[in-house]
Structures are given as structure tokens and as C-alpha cells.
Amino acid sequence: MKVAALAVGGVAVGAVSSSFVGHLGPAPAGPWRALTPDEARLVEAVAEQIVPADRDPGAKEAGVVVFIDRQLAGPCRRFLEKYRRGLACLVRTSETMFGKPFESLAWDDQTKLLQALESNKAPQDIWTSPSASEFFNLICDHSLQGFYGSPRHGGNRNYASYRMLGIEYPRVIGQNRYKG
Predict the structure, then answer these.
(1) What is the per-residue burial (b if ≥16 Cβ within 10 Å, else e) of 77-88?
(2) In 3D, which of 166, 106, 114 has the Cα closest to residue 138?
(3) Cβ contact 79:72 at 8 Å
(4) CA 29 vs CA 25, 33, 175: distances in Å
(5) What's the pLDDT score for residue 169?
(6) Contacts of 34 by beta carbon, 8 Å cutoff, 6+ apart
(7) How far apart are CA 85 and CA 89, in angstroms?
(8) Quick one: which of 8, 125, 139, 156 is 20 to 30 A from 118 by CA?
(9) Mind listing the pLDDT tens digit for each residue in 98-144?
(10) Phi, psi of 7, deg, nearest 5
């Protein structure tokens, strides 16, 4: 079963090869509602680290970035500016620590960078608002919601997490307003 959780002190990466290169190519299909194509590409790379593909689909295949984009354009729009600042800080941190964009880092280097964010050990002069750990927790929460939540919100494409867990699509979501 896929490990898609974070432990204090490190990012759980599941059963994936450490030689995986994080470059994910062109931005996922748009049009984007809140994110720019570059932001979407970066969010997708981070989400894939949080919920990596193994024998089951990961965040990329499950469309987690679509979920996050829809939420940032709708009910979670209050987080959009925090995402913009956090993603800009992530870009600077990657350039500072490794000299290249996060998306083109090797899998292990992406993991090291995210561990630095999680433990709030990223360069403090870059991360003021939000803090590194605050942004990490936000994007981690949204990635897990997008992977495990209902496909009607844009993530969990093709019921990826439901199939992984061996459960059927829930028949009733929310209140049953029909009494019969």
C-alpha cells in the first residue's frame, strides 16, 4: 500500500527509485483558474514528492494540481497569496541550495529541500511570510486532500486513491436530503 504521509523529520517517499529525476516536463493541462502554468508545474512537482507514484498512481496522475488550482480559485482563495509567496520562496530556496529549479532536481535533492522546509531549516532570509514549515504544511495538506478527496473537486482522477485502498466510490456525499 502506498505511503502518502509525512513523518516528523522527513518526507515519506514510498517505494520509488532514488534515481528518479524530478523534471516533469510541460505544465499539466490547463486552463488554470488560479495558478500560472509555472506555478502549476511547481505545485505538481511538490505534490508528487508528497504522494509519489509506486505501483499505484501518485499525485501527478491523480490530478492533485487541478484540485489545488480549483480550490485556490474558489473556497480556498484566501490561501492564494500565501501560495504565491511560498512558491516564490521555494524557487529561491532551490536556486540557493542546488543552483537549479526544483522541478529539475533529482528526486533525493527534492526530498532534501522539502525536509528543510518541513523542519523550518530552509534559509530564513528567504522564508519570512509564510514560514517554510507553514507553507510546507499547507501544500502537504492540500496535496493529501486532492489525492484522497472526492474526484468531483478535481483531484483523485480515475478514483486513484479509492482503487489503491480497494474501496468503491462513496455513494452518498454530504447530506441525504431525500427522505424516502
Answers:
(1) eebbebbeebbe
(2) 114
(3) yes
(4) 12, 12, 33
(5) 76
(6) 69, 70, 72, 73, 77, 80
(7) 6
(8) 156
(9) 999 999 999 999 999 999 999 999 999 999 999 999 999 999 999 99
(10) -105, 150
